[in-house]
Structures are given as C-alpha cells and as structure tokens.
UniProtKB/TrEMBL annotation:
<feature type="domain" description="Histidine kinase">
    <location>
        <begin position="574"/>
        <end position="792"/>
    </location>
</feature>
<dbReference type="InterPro" id="IPR029063">
    <property type="entry name" value="SAM-dependent_MTases_sf"/>
</dbReference>
<feature type="domain" description="PAC">
    <location>
        <begin position="485"/>
        <end position="536"/>
    </location>
</feature>
<dbReference type="InterPro" id="IPR005467">
    <property type="entry name" value="His_kinase_dom"/>
</dbReference>
<dbReference type="InterPro" id="IPR001610">
    <property type="entry name" value="PAC"/>
</dbReference>
<dbReference type="InterPro" id="IPR003661">
    <property type="entry name" value="HisK_dim/P_dom"/>
</dbReference>
<dbReference type="InterPro" id="IPR035965">
    <property type="entry name" value="PAS-like_dom_sf"/>
</dbReference>
<dbReference type="Pfam" id="PF08447">
    <property type="entry name" value="PAS_3"/>
</dbReference>
<dbReference type="InterPro" id="IPR013655">
    <property type="entry name" value="PAS_fold_3"/>
</dbReference>
<dbReference type="InterPro" id="IPR004358">
    <property type="entry name" value="Sig_transdc_His_kin-like_C"/>
</dbReference>
<keyword id="KW-0597">Phosphoprotein</keyword>
<dbReference type="InterPro" id="IPR036890">
    <property type="entry name" value="HATPase_C_sf"/>
</dbReference>
<dbReference type="InterPro" id="IPR000780">
    <property type="entry name" value="CheR_MeTrfase"/>
</dbReference>
<dbReference type="InterPro" id="IPR000700">
    <property type="entry name" value="PAS-assoc_C"/>
</dbReference>
<dbReference type="InterPro" id="IPR022642">
    <property type="entry name" value="CheR_C"/>
</dbReference>
<dbReference type="InterPro" id="IPR001789">
    <property type="entry name" value="Sig_transdc_resp-reg_receiver"/>
</dbReference>
<dbReference type="Pfam" id="PF00072">
    <property type="entry name" value="Response_reg"/>
</dbReference>
Length: 940
C-alpha cells in the first residue's frame, strides 16, 4: 500500500487528470458493452489464438483478465476456451485470473448479467452456458469454476507471471505514460510468445511500438510478446562497479516479487473459496434442517417410504412401511432381498436395480394379499455419488381402483346396453365444437370406426339433402324452446343406401346459454319399412273393406228395396181399398144426383156423401204424408188428460179380451202444442202394437207426466209432457229394439203390419218439437214414450174461422191457374159465385203471358206443379212487377213445398195451401191477403 501511495503522489504531481482516469478504470464495470462486444475482434481472437491453444493441449492454459470490471471478458474467455477444447476433443485445461479494484468485482464473482449485457450472446450459447435467474442470466457452475477473481491495482501492484494470454480492453483510457507502464506490467506477466488482447481500442494505445511486442492483428488488437535475448560472452574489462551484482539481485527480486504476487492472488482465491464454502455450509445446514423436518413429517404421516443405498441396504423407513414390509429398527443396513413383503410385486427388486443404474423413475401398481391396492414409485437420488440410492414410496389407491372397476363395469354395462338396444351416443361441446361419438355412431353414419374425426359437419354431411333443413330446424327449435330434441331423418351411406335414423337429445345450459348437448340415436330403417308396408296393407285392406261394404250396401239396398216393394204393395192394397170405398161413395152419390136431380133431398144427401168421401180421402193422404214426414201439422193446444179420457173407451173396445187398460195422469197437467188428429192416430197405432204384443192378454198403461229436460234424448232444454204407452208383452231384444223405428221394419207375420207405425210416430213427435224413445227387454214388455212440448200460455190454438156463406167479400180481380181443368173450373165457379172477378188459365205459359201483359190483377192463385212453367215461376214473374203482389200456391204433394219455402225466405207475399181444398177455405185465405195488399197501397 505504501508503494501505491508513492505512485499516486508522483502521478498527482505530474498529471492530476491521469489519476482520475486511472481511478475511473479501476472502478468502471469492465466492458460496458457486455459479453462479446466488438464481435469481430472476439471472432479473430477465437480463430487465431484460442483455437490453436486448445488444440495443442500440452499444458494448462493460463489467462489474466486485467481490469476485468463486471467479469464479462473473463466469462467470454471461459466460454470460448471450453467450446474450443470440446471442438478439438482436447485434454487441455485452463485457468482464468480476473483482477480489478472496482466494486463490480463482487458481481463478477457471481457471473450474473443483465439482458443488455447479453446482447452479443447467441440464443444457442444462452441455452448451453447460462441459467435464467431473477430476470437476468448467470454463467453455469462448470465454467465459473475455471475463473478466479481477486483485487489488484494494475499500475501499483505487481502482476502475474508466465501467462499464455493477457486481456485488458480498457487501456485506451489512460495517458501514454500510464499506458506504457500498464503495457510493461502486461509484458512482464506474459510468457515468451504469450499473446496480449487489447481489442479495437488498441489503435490508440501504440502497443506495436512498445518494446517487446510484435503485432499479430492490429484491427483486433492482438500482439505477441517477443523474446528478450542479447549476446553475452564475457564481462567487460575494467574495475568492478557492482553492475552485474545489481542485475543478478534485480532478477532474483523480480522472481521473488512474482512468487509473492502469485501467493497473494492464491491467498485471495482461497479467501474467496472459504467464503463460498461458508455459504455452502450454511445452505447445506439449512437443507439438513429442512430434510430433518421433512423426515419428521414423513415419520408422523401415513406415507409408506423406504430409502435404500446402492447395495439395496435399508437406510431409513417411515413407520407406515411396517404395514407392507416385516421390518424394524434392527433391520437397518439389511438388504431389500432379505425381506418378504406383504404385497405381490415380483418386479420390485429388478425395478430398483434399474432405477439405480439408469436414474429413471419407475411406477407400477401392486396388490396386497388382503386385496388392497398400492401405487408404487421408485426414484433414485444423488446418482453417481457415494451416497447414491433409491427411494421407494407406496400410496394406497384401493378406493380409486374400486372406483375404476365400478367405472369400467358401468362403461361395459352401458356398452352392452347400447349394443343390445342398437343405440349410438354423441356428446357435443357447443363452445369448442368438439364432438365425441360412440362406436355405433360411426356405423350408423356410414363411417368406418375412426375413419373421420367426429364433428357436426361430418354428421350433417351424411344427412339426406331433403332432410337437412328439417334436422337443423329441429335442433334450433329444441335449443330455443329448451325442450328435448326428437327428430327422424335419413342418412345416405357411401354405397348409396339410405337409412332412417331417429335422434333424441337434450341441451345443457349455464348463465351464458347452451354449452353442451348429449343424445342418443338409433337405426329405425326396419321400423320405417314396416310402417310403410303396414300403411300399404292398411290401404289395401281399407280398399277391400270399402269394396265389401259397397257390395253389402248394394245387397242391403236391394233387399230393403224388395222389402219396401212388398210393404208398398201391401200399402197400395190398403190405400186402394180405402180409395175404392171413397170412389164408390162419390160414384154412387153422383149417380143419385144424376137420376134424381129434381129431388132436392136426395141431391143434398148425395152432396154430403161426396164431401165426406173427399174428407176421408184427404185423411188418407195426410196419414201417408205423416209417414213420409212431409205433412203440415196444424199445432193447437191439447188437453192431454181430456184426450186420454176420450180415447179410453175407443181403445178399450179395440183391446179385446184379457187386456187391462189403465190411465195414470198427473194432476195439473199443462196443455201441449201438437196436431190433435195426428196425436190421436199415433196413440191408436201404439195401442194396436201393444195389443199385438200381448196375444194372451196383459196390461196396457197410458201414463202422462210433466218433466223438465236439459238436452237429454236429443230434446231442446225446456218443459215437456211425457206420454208413456207401456205394455206387459213379450218385449224386444237389443237388435230388434235398434231397428224398431226403421220404415218397413216389422216383426209381425205377413199381412199383419207394414212397419209404418213407429216410424210415423217418431216423425210426428219430431215435427212437433219433441221426440220418441223406446225401452224394452225380452220378457219385460215395451214402453214407448212421446215427449211433447208444453204449449206457450199466449198461444191461441183455435182453428181459423171460415167466413159465413152470406158474408160480404171484397171486389178483386184474381188470376187462377191450374193444369187440371176440373179443379180450375170448380174453383173459378165458386169464387165467381162469391162475387170475385176470376180470370182462369189451364197452362203456366198462358198465365205468364197474362202477367207480363198490361192486364191488372189483385191476386194470383196457382198450382205449384205444372209442366214448362210452374207456380213458383209465375210467383217470381208477379213479384218482378210488384214485390208485394199477393200469391197463393196450391199443392197436393208436400215435397213440392221445399222450393216455395226457399222463396218465402227470400221475401214476397206468398201463402201455401194443401190440396184438396174446399172453396170456402180458399176464399178465407184470399180475403185477408187482398185487404192487406190494398191497405199497403193506401198507406203508400
């Protein structure tokens, strides 16, 4: 230090700035540009100097990095030397001495660099020679061990000796005098032929001009130390001045100084090593404490662990290990092969030996004799060292194995169920698009197993083009409505075959919407084909049934027609008998009137007979129309109790011997609204049926009650009088009861009945606003019930009064039309006799011409059914002239009234009268219509 102080004093006396620059050099962080700055200089150093040194491999390579700063140059030299030695496959070794007085020397010892310092290091070298630590990079230990870092003042302290390479790339910052001093130090440190590396700044140093150096590469700053030799044969003559002795002493002193400096550097290095060893010892002590804590934790836990050395001798074990191995503390240092474990693991010892030899970790599963499962793991530690060994650990996995077995069983069960049910499954992640298909899904889609990666696109590609839109729409509908997806579609296989598939699936939702869909699919081709075949069979069957039904209906129609013809024959016989009697009376009375015209009494009697005969004929016609449900009923208020009382004597006389007739009429029975004559006829027919059902005698009860109906039996809700005609006869079975009201159906022998009675009774009841029901059973008699509506209180059921023969009539001009001349003449004569002006026509065409002429008429009376132009045509023509023109239509057939009813609904003054009609009845209808028409004209 004294020498350093003297040097500092002299420098300050001569040039204070030099000392500041020297201090800057001493304390600057080495090469500020980082590792391998000035890449070209380093490349030339590597190629021309380091590579030959490494290839020679004769002696250790000694390198001094002076003013090393942060150690970038020293670490770079270590990397290049190591790479060259490896590349040359040389046995050479090297040692790098790095010195400086800068505080950065501590960072240099750590060999840690920032990202900026590493700018010149290639990625390959980073991976090979550095470790990433704390956001920076650190040189690996194998290279750090070649570097020795120590403090040294380049200008004040003695340097090293016999160095192969000296490096000082910051020399250009000194003055020329101090540069020469530094070069002298570096020259002394190099062996003869040693190399000095200054880098590109050497161009300003002048090393080539310094004594003892020759230039190798000026651009790279490479110089070689030249040999210092001089011829010396004998001492010069003359007195001794001590020069030789001084030279010898100087050489000895220099050797001693070099040795002292090396010892000093070695001491510093040993001090550094001691510091590092102390740190290592502290770290190892901490690790020992940590290991002891871990060992205590292992001993107190349930982990089964054994530690063996290289000879498989037991070094330590956890107490839980005694569960699988028959060991105790006395068994330490015994071999693993000396124990018989309670676990079946034949590969245990071979696996341990392999782990020791290869360093690889072995894992396996083993089972104990009592059925427990353990996961066994063998791992080596500290391989290749004296303390190398293996650690065996066992972890119980019995529950996991049981769960795996259960899972495998469930999976197998599911697989078998899917196979038996011929089902396929899919699992679709809607977020990622990933799809998982079962094996059967590939087959149903026409793919070989594993032929294609499952996806939505792979599925839709197989769907028949005509079914794709429907399949996608069904998916979207189920997704939007959060319902189950259920859809059938066709899939087209590569061979062109078409298969029907039925798919069912469900979406799964979270807060963001649907994210997953799972479903099943099955091939329903056979079912679809079966359905199609069944539909064809059903269609064929229905066609055959229709044909059979048609044939049966035709047969039944012909049979019914035959039955009707037979019944009509019987009916015609009865009607012919009645009309023959009527005609007989008319003919006889006409003969009397012809032969006895002068006898007024006989003429009057003959006239009365004709009128009665006409009325009898009209009654026969009404009965026929009632049977056909075409008759016009004249509703009137009827006292049912009085009617039944009046009918008792008549029915009692007709009942015959052995039949008891009884009346059961409730008190206060209201009147009904019906046609009295038709009701009497119905009661007589029902009673006659009952008498026929009791040939051996029995009882007949006529019962009347008031009842309220709420829509039962086809009745409108309201008040009704219930008339029961109940007998105690043989009754009817269900089949007979079902057909009892059919026209022409009868169970009586031929000639005993026509089958009209019940049908005519039902027609009368329904036309009256009521209904007819039957109740019967074999041996229990029969009850026929007539439901007739209660008459309204304000209804006036009195028959219309005819005007008396002497009553005055209005003066009116009447157009009377009938294609039957007899009827036309009779009615014309009668009306003219009552003071009316009647214009008669026997053709519809002639009457139409009169209506369209300029003639005026007050009223039209026309027959309905006429050839070419009928009564309805005439009525329309009259209404064309005057919408309110009064018209009376006469008809003898109820069916002709249907068009007229339509005309009545369309409007117009039209009245319908039935034939045969008496003159006074026609007059009674004409008078009010004429008066009303004239009253209308007056008001307008």
């Amino acid at each position: 230090m004294r020498k350093r102080s003297i040097l500092k004093k002299r420098i300050l006396e001569k040039s204070p700035g030099d000392w500041r620059r020297i201090e800057k050099v001493r304390f600057m962080p080495g090469c500020a540009a980082g590792l391998f700055a000035e890449a070209e200089s380093w490349r030339r150093l590597d190629a021309s100097i380091l590579a030959p040194m490494a290839a020679a491999g004769n002696a250790p390579i000694r390198v001094w990095s002076a003013a090393c700063g942060g150690g970038a140059d020293a670490c770079g030299l270590a990397i290049l030397l190591q790479e060259n030695i490896a590349r040359a496959n040389s046995r050479a070794s090297f040692q790098i001495f790095a010195t400086d007085v800068s505080p950065a020397l501590e960072r240099a010892r750590r060999a840690q660099f920032s990202e900026a310092d590493m700018a010149g290091v290639s990625p390959e070298r980073r991976r090979k020679w550095f470790d990433a630590v704390n956001g920076g990079w650190r040189l690996k230990h194998e290279l750090r061990s070649h570097c020795v870092f120590a403090q040294q003042d380049l200008l004040a302290d003695w340097g090293f000796r016999q160095m192969d390479l000296a490096v000082c790339r910051d020399l250009a910052t000194l003055t020329r005098e101090n540069q020469s001093r530094a070069l002298h130090r570096l020259h002394e440190a190099l062996r003869p032929g040693g190399v000095l590396f200054l880098g590109r700044p050497a161009r300003g140093v002048g090393a080539s001009r310094a004594a003892g150096f020759e230039t190798l590469d000026a651009e790279a700053g490479l110089f070689r130390k030249s040999a210092e030799t001089a011829p010396f044969r004998s001492l010069p003559a003359g007195p001794s001045d001590g020069t030789n002795q001084i030279a010898r002493l100087r050489l000895s002193l220099e050797d001693l100084q070099a040795t002292q400096e090396e010892l000093f550097a070695l001491n510093r290095e040993l001090h550094d090593v001691n510091t590092r060893l102390s740190a290592v010892n502290a770290s190892r002590a901490a690790k020992i404490r940590q290991l002891e804590a871990q060992r205590a934790m292992l001993a107190g836990g349930a982990l089964i662990a054994l530690f063996l050395d290289q000879d498989l001798r037991l070094q330590w074990f956890t107490p839980a290990a005694m569960e699988l191995f028959p060991i105790s503390e006395r068994d330490l240092n015994r071999r693993l092969t000396d124990f018989v474990p309670r676990i079946h693991d034949p590969d245990l010892v071979p696996a341990v030996r392999e782990a020791l030899s290869t360093g690889r970790t072995h894992e396996a599963e083993a089972r104990t004799v009592d059925g427990r499962w353990f996961a066994r793991r063998i791992r080596s530690y500290d391989p290749g060292e004296a303390g190398a060994g293996v650690a065996l650990t066992f972890v119980e996995i019995t529950e996991r194995k049981q769960a795996e077995d259960a899972l495998r069983e469930n999976a197998e069960r599911l697989r078998l169920a899917l196979a038996v049910g011929e089902l396929a499954t899919w699992d679709w992640n809607l977020r990622t698009g990933a799809v998982v298909w079962s094996d059967g899904h590939f087959k149903m889609q026409g793919y070989a197993l594993g032929e294609i990666a499952p996806s939505y696109e792979a599925w839709i590609a197989r769907v028949h083009p005509e079914d794709r839109a429907g399949a996608e729409a069904a998916l979207q509908a189920a997704r939007d409505a959060r319902t189950v997806y259920n859809h059938d579609f066709r899939a087209v296989h590569p061979d062109g075959s078409i298969h029907w598939l039925s798919a069912q699936g469900s979406y799964f939702y979270d807060d963001d919407g649907p994210w997953r869909m799972i479903g099943v699919m099955r091939d329903v081709t056979a079912q679809k084909c079966g359905q199609d075949a069944l539909l064809r069979l059903n269609a064929e069957l229905e066609q055959r049934v229709r044909e059979e039904v048609g044939i049966r209906e035709q047969t039944m129609t012909r049979l019914a027609q035959a039955e009707k013809l037979a019944a009509l024959g019987e009916l015609a016989g009865g009607v012919a008998h009645d009309f023959n009697n009527i005609l007989q009376g008319v003919a006889a009375s006409a003969d009397v009137m012809t032969r006895s015209a002068e006898n007024a009494r006989l003429v009057r009697r003959a006239t009365d007979l004709q009128i009665k005969a006409t009325q009898r004929g009209a009654a026969v016609v009404r009965r026929l129309l009632a049977f056909a449900r075409r008759a016009d009923l004249h509703a009137q208020r009827i006292d049912v109790a009085a009617l039944l009382a009046d009918s008792r004597d008549l029915l009692g006389a007709a009942s015959g011997a052995g039949v008891a007739l009884a009346l059961d009429v409730a008190d206060g029975l209201p009147p009904v609204s019906a046609d009295r004559s038709q009701l009497e006829t119905v009661l007589v027919n029902l009673a006659n049926n009952a008498f026929d059902a009791m040939p051996g005698g029995g009882g007949l009860t006529l019962r009347a009650r008031r009842e309220t109906r709420q829509g039962e039996d086809g009745l409108v809700a309201g008040e009704y009088v219930r008339l029961d005609v109940a007998d105690s006869g043989s009754g009817m079975d269900a089949a007979t009861l079902a057909r009892a009201c059919e026209p022409f159906f009868t169970t009586k022998p031929f000639g005993k009945g026509t089958g009209f009675g019940l049908s005519m009774a039902r027609g009368f009841a329904e036309q009256s606003g009521g209904a007819l029901t039957l109740a019967s059973a074999p041996g229990a008699g029969t009850t026929v019930t007539l439901w007739l509506p209660v008459a309204p209180a304000e209804e006036d059921a009195r028959p219309p009064r005819r005007p008396p023969a002497s009553a005055p009539v209005v003066a009116a001009r009447v157009l009377l039309v009938d294609d039957d001349a007899t009827i036309a003449e009779f009615l014309t004569d009668y009306l003219r006799g009552r003071g009316l002006d009647v214009i008669m026509s026997t053709t519809g065409a002639g009457a139409l011409a009169k209506i369209r002429s300029d003639e005026t008429f007050d009223l039209l009376v026309s027959d309905l059914s006429m050839p070419e132009v009928n009564g309805l045509d005439l009525a329309r023509a009259a209404h064309d002239r005057s919408p309110d023109f009064p018209v009376i239509i006469l008809t003898g057939y109820a069916g002709d009234a249907d068009p007229l009813k339509t005309e009545l609904r369309a409007g117009g003054a039209i009245q319908l009268l039935r034939k045969p009609i008496a003159g006074e009845d026609l007059l009674a209808a004409i008078v009010p219509m004429v008066r009303n028409e004239r009253a209308t004209e007056s008001s307008s």
